[in-house]
Specification:
Number of strands: 19
Oligomer: single chain
Strand content: 15-25%
Structural class: alpha+beta
Shape: globular
Helix content: 40-55%
Largest sheet: 8 strands, mixed
Distance between the termini: 23 Å
Strand order of the largest sheet: 10-8-9-1-3-2-18-19
Radius of gyration: 24 Å
Length: 657
């Protein structure tokens, strides 16, 4: 695991390239604290900070092909690199290292961009062809690893994290009002959004090819959720699930360092922990977060799982004060506006994981998206069939939706919700039927902004421009939206990859193995009605996991939001109401912000609603992003003495500086 950064087509003086690269890589040194290197060419520089996991002794970057034509800076892990290496060796390719990075490079030399379809991994990379002058920027199929690009004074800048741009001469951050409105409304950046002017993400499964002044954007793979041939029987489906998930765990245990597991106490991470414990040659290390607030705590399930599997378990206890204290630094690593605080405990957890010497963890992300584990999928089934059901059936279905939410408890609660659901049985946002109710909370948050315009325009464009989207069933559309928005934009990035890599920890997600996702598409809703979430997953592992975990139902990972600030740091009111800051940010509506902040701090924490919670966290994160990026306070957080190995092809020399 690593971080990459660089620039292409720059007008900077050539002698400054090395110093600029050192500054850019220093900003993301936390992603790869083991070593740093860069490649310098004509009008191009690119580099890597490396976290050594596979081939610790000879896996340094950048890596060049034997003939010196192709050079690669790589961030990620290729889980099937062993099999691909064997295939390439049979074709006559020779390898100088044992690293997966060299396999990526040789695969590109052998097959060009077609090699990407063979990859099972989480990656983002920059590959330069010194003969054609091309630079290829590529991102993995699910958006597991980030990759941003920016235009500045004729140059293309790129990096795993936007903070690297702070070190490029003359680059300034400025919020993009339209993108902020979209992010506030839909809870997360859309696939190409960053929240800032002039900066874009390369979407998941996509590439950017630069060739002088010519630019080519495209996809190398699509998200295919159409159901393939289903297993003939439920038992066959269960066996296929056990086989594919086990294989996905096996390839993600490939490492030259110890691998741990994030074990939250939920079904998905418990399955991963069970499989990893059976396959590792040592006592498995598991890690989790615990909360002082019992509303969010799952320690009982965590303890039972650790005892059941015999793991060596470490839990990080998190209080309101801990969330608030770590919030600014966690936001600096998140880099984008955030709608809840659940990423902060993960930041604290990764810090403890690395303190204990673990560099790699497996986690359960992706299972809910692949196997229909979220309430939004049940919502969609209910809303799509609403007019065909009588009230008794509607109430029965409603009781199966969100048992962990207080306002859903009991028949009275279900009857109160009937009126709410009735409002969303017709599609008012074209293409976004499944998410209309969710987006109501986001619509409230956009009131914080001066000119929100149409905050859902970008999301509507996203689905309108997707080939084949209209042919998907309602639940498949909901699933597609989850993969393309909240999973990649928040769960895999802000809450997952960014918080882990902030401390040099790599996370791997077996449920996002392409074969597992394909299998899930073929078995979902074939043997159940969809109201018992992840029915097949629970059945597949019912004989090997504690009954408590199997029976508790979906309990989403959450953390205290605005209540943590109100209870532990009332002085945050002054921070969020500072007139100079609000004016400097420029995109906020000061009168609404003032009234809103005062209302939150004057309301008992237990009575602050969901939409107010989300708006509060979005506002708080925006204030800190302004501090770190627009005001450039984050520019001073990088180490000043980063040792950098330089490959300088302008003079065909390699020197250490």
């Amino acid at each position: 695991m690593c971080g990459i950064a660089g620039f292409y087509g720059s007008r900077l003086p050539a002698p400054s390239y090395g110093d600029v690269m050192r500054g850019m890589l220093a900003q993301i040194e936390h992603r790869g604290p083991d070593e740093a290197g860069c490649f310098l060419g004509d009008h191009l520089a690119m580099g890597t900070v490396r976290l050594g996991i596979i081939d610790l002794t000879s896996g340094s970057q950048p890596v060049g092909s034997a003939d010196g034509r192709h050079w690669l800076c790589y961030n990620g892990e290729l889980y099937n690199y062993v099999e691909l290496r064997e295939e390439l060796t049979a074709l006559g390719f020779a390898f100088r290292t044992e690293s997966d990075t060299e396999v990526v490079l040789q695969a590109w030399v052998a097959w060009g961009r077609d090699c990407l379809r063979r990859f099972n991994g989480a990656f983002a990379f920059a590959l330069h062809d010194t003969v054609t002058g091309e630079l290829h920027l590529v991102r993995d199929r699910f958006g597991k690893r980030p990759l941003y690009v920016a235009r500045h004074q004729g140059a293309w800048l790129f990096a795993s994290e936007m903070k690297a741009f702070l070190a490029y001469p003359g680059f300034e951050f400025a919020f993009d009002p339209d993108q902020l409105a979209s992010i506030f409304a839909t809870w997360t950046p859309l696939p190409d959004q960053s929240g800032y002017r002039g900066i874009e993400q390369i979407p998941m499964g996509s590439y950017l090819r630069l060739d002088g002044h010519r630019v080519e954007r495209g996809r190398w793979t699509d998200l295919d959720l159409t159901a393939g041939p289903a297993p003939a029987t439920e038992e066959e489906a269960l066996e296929r699930i056990r086989e594919e998930v086990a294989r996905a765990v096996d390839v993600r245990l490939r490492s030259d360092v110890e691998v741990g597991v994030y074990a939250s106490g939920g079904l998905d991470s418990s399955i991963v922990a069970h499989l990893a414990a059976r396959r590792t040659g040592r006592q498995l290390r598991t890690f989790s977060v615990r909360f002082d607030d019992p509303e969010f705590d799952e320690s009982a399930e965590q303890d039972e799982l650790a005892a059941h599997l015999g793991t060596r378990h470490t839990a990080v206890q998190v209080s309101d004060a801990d969330v608030v204290e770590a919030f600014p630094d966690a936001v600096r690593h998140a880099e984008v506006p955030v709608f809840r605080t659940a990423f902060v405990p993960m930041y604290l957890l990764a810090e403890e994981v690395r303190r204990q010497g673990i560099k790699v963890v497996l986690s359960g992300e992706g299972a809910d998206e692949a196997f229909l584990g979220y309430g939004i999928f049940k919502d969609t089934r209910l809303l799509a069939a609403w007019h065909e059901l009588d009230d008794e059936t509607r109430l029965r279905r409603m009781a199966q939706l969100y048992p962990y939410l207080r306002h859903f408890n009991g028949e009275d609660g279900h009857r109160r919700m009937l009126g709410l659901y009735q409002q969303f049985t017709e599609e008012r946002l074209p293409g976004l039927f499944s998410h209309q109710m969710r987006f109501q909370n986001g619509r409230f948050a956009t009131r914080l902004l001066k000119n929100p315009g149409d905050p859902f325009a970008a999301a509507r464009r996203l689905v309108a421009e997707e080939p084949g989207y209209d042919r998907l069933a309602p639940v498949q559309k909901a699933q597609w939206l989850e993969f393309r928005t909240l999973l990649a934009g928040y769960l895999l990035s802000t809450q997952g990859e960014r918080m882990a890599l902030a401390h040099g920890v790599e996370n791997r997600c077996p449920f996002l193995d392409p074969a597992v996702v394909r299998l899930a598409a073929s078995v979902n809703l074939r043997f159940d009605d969809g109201y018992d979430e992840k029915y097949l997953l629970k059945r597949a592992y019912e004989d090997v996991l504690p009954r408590r975990i199997l029976q508790k139902g979906k309990f989403p990972y959450r953390a205290p939001d605005s209540a943590a600030f109100v209870r532990s740091r009332p002085d945050y009111r002054d921070l969020l109401l500072d007139a100079g800051t609000l004016e400097d940010i420029g995109v906020l509506e000061p009168r609404f912000v003032t009234a809103f902040v005062n209302r939150v701090f004057d309301t008992p924490p237990e009575r602050i609603g969901t939409k107010e919670n989300q708006a509060f966290v979005l506002l708080s994160s925006l204030v800190w992003l302004h501090h770190w990026f627009v005001r450039r306070a984050g520019a001073e957080r990088a180490p000043k003495d980063l040792a950098l190995h330089v490959v300088d092809r302008r003079s065909s020399s390699a020197v250490s500086v």
